[in-house]
Design goal:
The chain is mainly α. It has one domain. Helices cover about 90% and strands about 0% of the residues. It is built from two helices and no strands. It is elongated, with a radius of gyration of 31 Å. The termini are far apart. The mean pLDDT is about 90.
Amino acid sequence: MSSVESLMSMHREDMTLLRTEAKLARRERLDSSREMDQAFKDLRSKISAEMPVTSSYSFKLRAPIAFMATLMGVISF
């Protein structure tokens, strides 16, 4: 019986150790993930500040093209 109890106690100790290691690893991953997210946000804001703000031609021409397509569809019937 003593060997079974010693095995159980060793198992409990091992599981406790594994849980603490898993918590530490998770915390480190979260910290590094936060740092990477912050660095990405900083880089994105820096790039967006450097780029000029222009609207593309496809956005400007979307409504007239849609209107012409609708008009052509109505006229063709």
